[in-house]
């Protein structure tokens, strides 16, 4: 049996990784959106690869905690889904993000002989990117409470409202950027 101190330390590490991931994703999303809109040409791709590395760690920790939670609740598994819908929203959106990130990795283009070649941005591409943004928004928002608790930060309503407002604004900007980019391909 793993002691509680170790589990607490892993939760704290995961919380720090989560904050770094959120920051990296927001920077990547905003930078990528400005590239799509033709405003800038700085995509911070190197930052995205750091994000992928942190994401892999976050996924493994999340899987381990999910397995532990399900094992603990195994005797009440029939009622567990209904009683803890937020737990499952976090896992479903997390899994959905893993799938959608694979689509995202090669959707815009690639470097061929030193030149960046842009792929046609299809309706399927647009839908997958919209789903990525929506799943990301839901995943982050549904995990704000445990994240704040793990970091030892006051769990006040006003703080969560401000975080939600910032995330909503950035999400709207990302969605509008994807839509405008899609329209430019029509």
Give me the CATH fold name: 3 helical TM bundles of succinate and fumarate reductases
CATH superfamily: Fumarate reductase/succinate dehydrogenase, transmembrane subunit
Average pLDDT, to the nearest integer? 88
CATH architecture: Up-down Bundle
Number of helices: 7
Order of helices and strands: HHHHEEHHH
Taking pLDDT < 50 over at least 5 consecutive residues as the criterion, the unreliable ranges are: none
| Beta-strand percentage range | under 5%
Strands side by side in the biggest sheet? 1-2
Radius of gyration: 18 Å
Shape: elongated
Q: Helix fraction? A: over 70%
Q: Describe the largest sheet.
A: 2 strands, antiparallel
Structural class: mainly alpha
Count of all domains: 1
Task: Characterise this structure.
It is a single chain. This protein has 186 residues and is mostly helical. The chain has a single domain, classed as Fumarate reductase/succinate dehydrogenase, transmembrane subunit (3 helical TM bundles of succinate and fumarate reductases, Up-down Bundle). Helix content is 78%, strand content 4%. The chain has 7 helices and 2 strands. The chain has a two-stranded antiparallel ribbon. A hairpin with a 2-residue loop joins strand 1 and strand 2. The longest helix is centred in the N-terminal third of the chain and has 33 residues. The termini are far apart. The model has no long low-confidence stretch (mean pLDDT 88).
């Amino acid at each position: 049996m793993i002691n509680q101190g170790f589990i607490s330390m892993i939760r704290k590490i995961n919380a720090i990784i989560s904050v770094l991931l959120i920051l990296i994703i927001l920077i990547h999303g905003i930078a990528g959106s400005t590239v799509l809109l033709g405003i800038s040409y700085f995509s911070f791709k190197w930052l995205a690869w750091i994000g992928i590395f942190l994401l892999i760690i976050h996924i493994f920790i999340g899987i381990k905690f999910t397995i532990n939670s399900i094992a603990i609740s195994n005797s009440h598994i029939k009622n567990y889904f209904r009683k803890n819908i937020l737990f499952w929203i976090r896992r479903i959106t997390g899994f959905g993000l893993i799938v959608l990130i694979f689509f995202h990795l090669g959707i815009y283009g690639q470097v061929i002989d030193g030149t960046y070649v842009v792929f046609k941005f299809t309706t399927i591409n647009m839908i997958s990117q919209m789903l990525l943004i929506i799943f990301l928004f839901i995943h982050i928002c549904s995990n704000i409470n445990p994240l704040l608790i793990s970091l030892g930060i006051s769990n006040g309503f006003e703080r969560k409202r401000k975080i939600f407002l910032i995330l909503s604004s950035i999400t709207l900007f990302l969605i509008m950027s994807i839509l405008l980019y899609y329209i430019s391909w029509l």
